[in-house]
């Protein structure tokens, strides 16, 4: 095989593997059996070993590699990564809307509508792409400075190494682990005589903060994106979600909903709560965001939370404990 032929075959394999990855891990649709995907990855790996000059950072073979880190490097976020204030009832939501309405004109209040999405119980991350290639991934940290966990995030198949367009992008999302994978890992812990992980969030967070990316890769983490910091001319939060999906990110769009008013938010909250157990991963409420970006930005920040969005939490799960015996000494 000549260098030219090798380069052409490597490029074709990368495109094929990425297409199958995107379909499997983002769209939840299997185009080919996993064995076929694995054989293509093996062919790509072998070719890259023979022609290392054609190895690129966005190659599927580069998801797991490198030596364990001695420590995580600190990185500054382009914009602060905020967290949300909580609401636990319809009254809390009405009070929130009343508070933010006081900061707006009468016309702006009339323009308020909402975009609602599941509140994931995972680890918040930021992803930076240069010319469409994944460059840096970091944790929230204190909101201003996080930790560089790029190598670990590369092991998550739902995170694209190359976007559909060669653009500069700053996106944010969450690293999560499915309920099924969480149960599987805890079964392995039992077999090994090791302590169980308390919950999926702790497991996801601990997995991302491993110094050895090979350990992270064994956890089969998942990820979705829900915030676009870069300006693509988007007018609403809903548009941000559409752009993220078009760029190749995994989103929760199919579980999210545009709501014209709080009554529609309340209805969607009830529906989502009833379907909560059917979700593939843990959620603990809805994130309700003022949809028009212009109004959202005008509302600004209070403390470390945006005024224009709130976490509308579900009631705490109730469990029944059976007392089998009481012994008095």
From TrEMBL:
Swiss-Prot/TrEMBL keywords: DNA damage, DNA repair, Ligase
The answer to whether the entry has keyword Nucleus is: no
Which Gene Ontology MF annotations are present?
A: DNA ligase (NAD+) activity
**InterPro entries, A to Z:** DNA_ligase_AS, DNAligase_adenylation, DNAligase_N
Report the record's Gene Ontology biological process terms: DNA repair
Q: Which CDD domains match?
A: LIGANc
A Pfam family recorded for this sequence: DNA_ligase_aden
Looking at the record, the residues that make up the NAD-dependent DNA ligase N-terminal domain are 5-329
Q: What protein name applies here? A: NAD-dependent DNA ligase LigA
């Amino acid at each position: 095989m000549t260098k030219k032929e090798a380069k052409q075959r490597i490029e074709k394999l990368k495109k094929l593997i990425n297409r199958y990855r995107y379909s499997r891990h983002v769209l939840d649709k299997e185009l080919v059996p996993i064995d076929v995907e694995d054989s293509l990855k093996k062919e790509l790996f072998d070719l890259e070993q023979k022609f290392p000059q054609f190895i690129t950072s966005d190659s599927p073979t580069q998801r797991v590699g490198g030596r364990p880190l001695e420590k995580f490097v600190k990185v500054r976020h382009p914009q602060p990564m905020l967290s949300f204030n909580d609401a636990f009832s319809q009254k809390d939501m009405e009070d929130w809307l009343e508070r933010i309405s006081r900061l707006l004109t009468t016309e702006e209040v009339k323009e308020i509508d909402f975009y609602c999405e599941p509140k994931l119980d995972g680890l918040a991350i930021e992803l930076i792409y240069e010319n469409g290639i994944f460059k840096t991934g970091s944790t929230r940290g204190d909101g201003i400075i996080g930790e560089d966990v790029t190598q670990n995030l590369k092991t998550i198949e739902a995170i694209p190494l190359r976007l559909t367009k060669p653009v500069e992008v700053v996106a944010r999302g969450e690293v999560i682990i499915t309920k099924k994978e969480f149960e599987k890992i805890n079964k392995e812990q039992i077999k090994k005589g090791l302590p169980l992980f308390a919950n999926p969030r702790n497991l996801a967070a601990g997995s991302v903060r491993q110094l050895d990316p090979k350990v992270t890769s064994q956890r089969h983490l998942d990820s979705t994106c829900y915030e676009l910091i870069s300006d693509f001319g988007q007018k609403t939060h809903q548009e941000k979600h559409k752009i993220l999906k078009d760029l190749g990110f995994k989103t929760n769009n199919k579980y999210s909903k545009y709501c014209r008013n709080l009554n529609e938010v309340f209805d969607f909250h009830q529906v989502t709560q009833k379907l909560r157990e059917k979700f593939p991963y843990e959620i603990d409420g809805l994130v309700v965001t003022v949809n028009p970006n212009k109004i959202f930005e005008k509302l600004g920040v209070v403390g470390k939370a945006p005024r224009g969005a709130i976490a509308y939490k579900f009631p705490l799960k109730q469990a029944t404990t059976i007392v089998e015996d009481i012994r008095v000494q």
